Protein: Germin-like protein
Amino acid sequence: MARNFSASVRRVTLALFVLQLALLPMMAIASDADPEQDFCVGDSNNPTIVNGLVCKNPAEVKANDFKFSGLATPGNTNNPLGSNVTAAFAAEFPGINTLGISMARLDFAKGGLVPPHTHPRATEIIFVVEGSLFVGFVSTNETLYATTLHKGDVFVFPRGLLHFELNVCDGTATAIAALNSQNPGTQIQAVALFNSKINEVVLEKAFGLGEKAIQHIESTVEAANPVN
Ligand SMILES: *[C@@H]1O[C@H](CO)[C@@H](O)[C@H](O)[C@H]1NC(C)=O
Ligand SMILES: *[C@@H]1O[C@H](CO)[C@@H](O)[C@H](O)[C@H]1NC(C)=O
Structure:
C-alpha cells in the first residue's frame, strides 16, 4: 500500500516536472525577454546586429534618453488611406530598448483607415483621444470582434491577430496605442501580399483571381502603402 502510494507520488511528480519542462519555452516567448539590467538605452550609432539594440554606456545615459517627443505632433494624413501611424518603438525611442513596451500615435483624416494588419510580437491597447473609430480584430477561427469606440474608450487587440481602425466621425480622430514589445513589428496584409513581389501565380491561386485583377490590386496597394 505504502509502496503503491509513493510510486504514484513519484509518477505525479514526474508528470508535473515534464509538464513544467514543456511549458518553459512557452513562457519564454510570451513577451519580450526580461532585461538583465535597470535599463539599456539603445545606442543607435552602434552597427552591431543583436536581438534589440546594443546598450549605450550607462555612465553617459541622461534623463532625456527616457523622453520622446515624437508623438506630440500629428502625423500627416494627406495620403490615400487618410491615416498616419507615428511609432515610438525602440528604433525611434531607444530609451525603451529591452523594456518590453512601446507606444504609437494614430491620426485619422475624415474617413481615414489603418488597414488590416498584425503585430507579430505584441498585444496592442488603444485609447481614443478624439473622435470615433470603428475597430476590430479577427480571431484564428475567422470570428470578427468589431465595435465603435468613442472619445475615452479603450480597446485591446490580442497579440498577432489581424486588426484595423476606421475613422467614423465627422472630423479628424486621434488614438494612442501601447504595445507590449519594444519592437512589435507591423505587417499590413495588403502590402505584405501585393507589394512584396510574391509570384503572381501564388496570388492568383490564393485569391481565385486572374492576372489582370492581381496586377490591378498590386498597383493600387503600391500607391496606398502607408508604411513610412
Ligand atoms: C506621416 O506623417 C509624417 C510626419 O508628418 C510624414 O513624414 C510621413 O510621410 C507620413 N506618412 C504617410 C504615409 O503619409
Ligand atoms: C470560433 O470561436 C468562437 C469562440 O469560441 C465560437 O463562438 C465560434 O462558434 C467559433 N467559430 C467557428 C467558425 O468555429
The helical segments are 2-28, 189-194, 200-207, 211-223. The radius of gyration is 23 Å. Residues 141, 143 surround 2-acetamido-2-deoxy-beta-D-glucopyranose (ligand 2) (CB under 6 Å).
